[in-house]
């Protein structure tokens, strides 16, 4: 019995372990999106929660507006994470842009929550690398 081999993007020989990392990146994006939605609602309903105790904030903002920005950003991250897991090309592009934006947003809150912000920045770097360099490998699973 002869086996049929495909070449190009659907070639199963090009499948590597990075497919797992790309799936992990999509799951992380969706999870961070859920956490952003929760943080956004906390900022909307409790203005003083994110105010740093020792020093002033990096930027002077209205936390209710910031909360709605986080809610919207979280929804975008959840939808894009779903697309990354299933190998959608648009999700790769949007995912990298959103991960960079999320890194910038978390850097803005570094003085208020240094541990959470550092962890989020590290996860954003993993997401950016996995999706930008190996995002195409998730398409192999979709076409195989």
TrEMBL record:
The keyword Transferase does not apply. The chain crosses the membrane at residues 21-45, 65-85, 90-109, 115-133. This is Membrane protein. Coiled coil: none annotated. Signal peptide: none annotated. Keywords: Membrane, Transmembrane, Transmembrane helix. It comes from Virgisporangium ochraceum. It comes from the Bacteria. Pfam families: DUF7144 (PF23636). The lineage of its organism: Bacteria, Bacillati, Actinomycetota, Actinomycetes, Micromonosporales. Residues 21-136 form the DUF7144 domain.
